[in-house]
Amino acid sequence: MRPGGLCRIHHAASLASAASIALPCFPPTTFPPPAFRCFRPGTPRAGGGSMDSTTMSPPGVAVRDPKSLVEKKTAIRCAGCSKLQVIADFDGTLTRYWIDGRRGQTSHGLLQQGNAEYDARRQALYEYYHPLEISPTIPIEEKTKLMEEWWEKTHGLLIEGGVTYDAIKKSVSEATIAFRDGVVELFEFLEELDVPVLVFSAGLADIIEEVFRQKLHRSFKNVKVVSNRMVFDEKGCLVAFKGKTIHVLNKNEHALDMAAPIHDKFGYPNGYNPDSVLMKQRTNVLLLGDHVGDLGMSDGLSYENRIAVGFLNNNTEMSFKSYLDAFDVVYLNDASMRGVVELVSQLCAENQ
């Protein structure tokens, strides 16, 4: 998520309805049968043949390598849910890309300070820095410094312009933002299984949590938002940001050591963060994102198996190949989260 911009813009994004974009051809999706034996990925099975499977072609979903996906699912299932964690991007992944035929807002873009001058200044920063962010010619070291500069300037404007928590609540209540169908079922299922969910965002944790409160009307004990967290004074005015800045180029498991815990206002003594320790013990990852760059969210974690699910919301024909090359499973055209719920049920079948 980018600071200042009114919406998150993908390359050559079209404002036409996603449903009107023709789907490219893609291979059939392979699902494992309800019961199968455990094996290490890459280990030959008895008889030298491939695992029995049911081949289906659900509309709007593609699998890069069905055999590899079956092997990953088998390994994760055999290790058990105690070794599994879910890492998810927020905007365009947990939330819908299209709402009533128009582009939904992002959790950063929806914020209105109640001060037109400062809203315009944040937008000007977006228009200057966003082209630098997506430039293919700027070295990563230089781009990282530019992103830090952008985020720090934006955060400074939010403080200087007098953002209040009341403004956040009002902005969320008036925003065009909604969760994908199936997100609540997914979170409830993972909560029941005691599988932690890390919601990574380069935006603002306080806004994301307010979206949870207003749109879902509940919280989940296993969901942690890892993002930039605000500090408010007794009058509800923003006075500072807690921890180091999380931007688009450091939005990964290293950020666990930077971010404040979701239910804690003061942090842990001596820099100890039990969330970070526990997450590193969970070496199987289900990663959910809507951009190829979201694959970096698992950087810093020594995982044994990772299944990456990508949501290709727009610009389908141009981006399909790059997404299928990057993700294990790709859902097209702003799909629901119900396919991911089914995937989790397969990964944790023995725990049900």
From TrEMBL:
- Swiss-Prot/TrEMBL catalytic activity: a ribonucleoside 5'-phosphate + H2O = a ribonucleoside + phosphate
Q: What one GO molecular function would you report for this record?
A: nucleotide binding
What SUPFAM superfamilies is this protein classified in?
HAD-like (SSF56784)
User: Which top EC class is given?
Assistant: hydrolase
Q: Which keywords appear in this protein's UniProt record, sorted alphabetically?
A: Hydrolase, Magnesium, Metal-binding, Nucleotide metabolism, Nucleotide-binding
Residue ranges, annotated region (Disordered): 42-63
Instruction: Quote the cellular component terms of the Gene Ontology held in the record.
Output: cytoplasm
Give any Pfam family that matches.
UMPH-1
Record protein name field? 5'-nucleotidase
Species the sequence originates in: Musa acuminata subsp. malaccensis
